[in-house]
Write a structure and sequence with these properties.
This protein is α/β, with parallel strands linked by helices and 298 residues long. The chain contains nine helices and 14 strands. The strands form four sheets. It has a five-stranded mixed sheet.
Length: 298
Amino acid sequence: MNITFRQLRLFMALVETGSVSSAARKVHVTQPTASMQLREISDAVGVPLYEVIARKVHLTPMGIELAKTARAISNEWASFEQQVHGVKGLTRGQLKVAVVSTAKYFIPRILGTFCAMYPEIDISLEVLNRDGVVKRLEENLDDLYVMSQPPGHIEIDDEVLMPNPLLLVAPQDHLLSRKKNFDISLLKNEKFIFREKGSGTRMATDACFKTLRFKPDVRLELGSNEAIKQAVVGGLGLAVLSKYSLADQFNSEDVAILKCKEFPIKSSWHIVSLRGKKLSPIATIFKKHLAEQAKNWQ
């Protein structure tokens, strides 16, 4: 089987973009050249690797396996390049990080301090819901992942980064805002606004309420912390949100953090990677930097 590294990069571009024309642009070749090289890859393997349906590329099972192999080869080569740069006294290369949406309140700032130290490193940051981050983790698309509820169905290396307390939030003029250390039973007639099912915050909240045998009256399920905060301000109900998503709301006249004795719900941020994954030199440096900087956010 004779496939060049350049052809593998073209195939990876096809996987990432979902079209031959976009893949050609990404690797800076013409579309006819890209089509010809992709046919050569399929001929070399001897079985179909993808099919085009409604102008979108869909990988066959063997195409999926080739994508995994090509990605592993690419990661190993990138790691080798970084080691060469390190021997030369240089720090160059790429760092890929994927985080859940709530982590966007602190991860970009930590990345900023890292970039200031290593300005020649290219950073790729993906901010997605938990399901999106887990999918990228399954496919080994990034160096490191930050989330509050690591998956249990994947073999991973998991390190706790820092606490992620979940707070009970209400409009500033809510009657319970004047009470302290009240019991959760006082919330039985309240409406709640929750994150969507599957989010880390929702999973931790559901687990806590189940333990307490408290069944919340859910009025809305929303997919972003910003939308939930605005719904709380609008008087639509109470919400459970990460401390970090409320950082810009602590001094607001519209939002109150309620002093229910069952809150905050204990949760943590985790740094995750696939079990046995060999981290690149840059990813290793960033992981250490992330742990050091996290101390300033607790």
